[in-house]
């Protein structure tokens, strides 16, 4: 099979895009002369930009298409971008209506348009779902099954150790991150633990009180707590956490670019946080990471690979997949600062 031009469609969110990165690596390994184009939404564009296997990026401005006028204005330019090439392979790894529309636009003369096993919203009518040997395993392996179906020899290990995340952090990012640390009154050379504090789902967020207590424990063990994240909700949470602490943490929420955040993870003693995109980025960068999970399913989207460690909320209703708890519980509230420290200490030892 000769694949010269390949289109990958994986739009958002950050964690989903990180989970799809190994697909580009395995495609490039099997077809080193191929040209890979990736369609992505703005929020995750900088993640794909650090992937050396991707040759071209098309940014899909979803918000611009929400009005009829916006659709008329932006459809033509998007179509021209997509059709700059004719593709030997189109992979819709998003598997939703919006990604199916992009896959439909893409010209693939041989009609080879594929997607993972769990396609939804009619996307299976545009791209053929691949039911591979790992259809019930981690989502990364479901994506890689699509590459396996093409005849590529993609390795597999039950612990995820065979998965390769192609991420090249720019050299300038470390200098930028170090400057952010200095501006916050800290030295990046001192041992620190990065703490992603936010998540899109309220049920995924660790309560501020628990996070503050955990950060105090880090100081007790001569580790500097560094808060990271972005957005207004995370900024407010960081302020609340700082107000509850004995010594204020290093607050870099909203102050790091994605490359600088990646450099921060690479040089951290460890990372501890909820099931969120930037925690998955930390794991992809081989940063020792403790991930706190409650409403989501670890076997599907949990930490994958040797650097990821799971701490599951011990509730009988865990894995409910609810964005807001119907019982009114603070899902991750049962994970104490002490239990998180005990898990982190295993890694640090």
How would you portray this structure in words?
- The protein has two domains: 5-148, Rossmann fold; 174-348, 3-Layer(aba) Sandwich (Rossmann fold), CATH 3.40.50.2000.
- The protein has 349 residues and is of the alpha/beta class.
- The chain has helices spanning 14-30, 45-49, 68-82, 97-105, 139-148, 171-183, 208-220, 232-244, 258-266, 277-284, 298-301, 337-348, and strands at 5-9, 35-40, 56-59, 89-92, 113-115, 128-129, 192-196, 224-228, 250-251, 270-274, 289-293, 308-312.
- Helices cover 37% and strands 15% of the residues.
- It is globular.
- It is built from twelve helices and twelve strands.
- The strands form two sheets. A six-stranded parallel β-sheet has the order 3-2-1-4-5-6, sandwiched between helices. A six-stranded parallel β-sheet has the order 9-8-7-10-11-12, sandwiched between helices.
Please tag this protein with its features.
Rossmann fold; 37% helix; six-stranded parallel sheet; globular; 2 domains; 349 residues; alpha/beta; single chain; 15% strand; 12 helices
How far is the N terminus from the C terminus?
48 Å
Task: Identify the CATH homologous superfamily of the largest domain.
Answer: Glycogen Phosphorylase B
Count every beta strand, where a strand is a DSSP E run of 2 or more residues.
Answer: 12
Summed over residues and divided by their number, the pLDDT gives a mean of 92
Characterize the main sheet: 6 strands, parallel
Radius of gyration, in angstroms, nearest whole number: 21 Å
CATH topology of the largest domain: Rossmann fold
What best-fitting shape do the alpha-carbon axes yield? globular
Could you tell me the strand content as a percent range? 5-15%
Give the class from helix and strand content and strand pairing.
Answer: alpha/beta
The CATH class name of the largest domain reads: Alpha Beta
> Which strand order does the major sheet show?
3-2-1-4-5-6
- Helical proportion, percent range: 25-40%
- Total domains, how many? 2
H-E string: EHEHEHEHEEHHEHEHEHEHEHEH
Low-confidence stretches: none
CATH architecture of the largest domain: 3-Layer(aba) Sandwich
Q: What count of helical segments does DSSP give?
A: 12
């Amino acid at each position: 099979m000769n694949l010269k031009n390949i289109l990958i469609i994986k739009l958002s969110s950050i964690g989903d895009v990180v989970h799809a990165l190994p697909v580009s690596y395995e495609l490039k390994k099997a077809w080193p002369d191929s040209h890979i184009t990736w369609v992505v939404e703005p929020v995750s564009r900088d993640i794909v930009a650090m992937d050396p296997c991707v040759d071209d990026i098309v940014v899909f401005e979803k918000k611009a298409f929400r009005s009829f006028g916006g659709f008329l204005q932006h459809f033509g330019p998007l179509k021209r971008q997509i059709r700059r090439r004719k593709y030997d392979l189109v992979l819709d790894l998003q598997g939703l209506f919006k990604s199916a529309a992009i896959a439909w636009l893409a010209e693939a003369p041989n009609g080879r348009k594929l997607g993972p096993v769990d396609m939804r919203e009619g996307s299976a009518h545009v791209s053929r779902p691949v039911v591979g040997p790992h259809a019930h395993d981690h989502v990364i392996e479901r994506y890689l099954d699509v590459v396996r179906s093409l005849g590529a020899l993609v390795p597999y290990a039950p612990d995820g150790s065979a998965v390769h995340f192609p991420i090249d952090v720019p050299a300038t990012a470390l200098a930028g991150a170090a400057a952010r640390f200095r501006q916050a009154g800290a030295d990046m050379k001192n041992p620190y633990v990065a703490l992603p504090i936010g998540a899109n789902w309220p049920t995924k967020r660790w309560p501020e009180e628990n996070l503050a207590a955990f950060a105090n424990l880090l100081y007790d063990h001569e580790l500097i707590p560094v808060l990271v994240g972005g957005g207004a909700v995370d900024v407010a949470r960081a302020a609340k956490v700082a107000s509850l602490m004995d010594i204020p943490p290093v607050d870099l929420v909203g102050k790091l670019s994605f490359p600088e955040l990646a450099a921060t993870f690479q040089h951290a003693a460890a990372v501890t946080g909820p099931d969120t995109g930037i925690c998955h980025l930390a794991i992809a960068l081989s940063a020792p990471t403790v991930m706190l999970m409650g409403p989501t399913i670890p076997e599907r989207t949990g930490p994958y690979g040797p650097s990821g460690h799971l701490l599951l909320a011990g509730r009988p209703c865990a894995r409910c997949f609810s964005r807001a708890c119907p019982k009114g519980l603070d899902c991750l509230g049962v994970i104490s600062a002490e239990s998180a420290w005990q898990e982190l200490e295993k890694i640090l030892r």
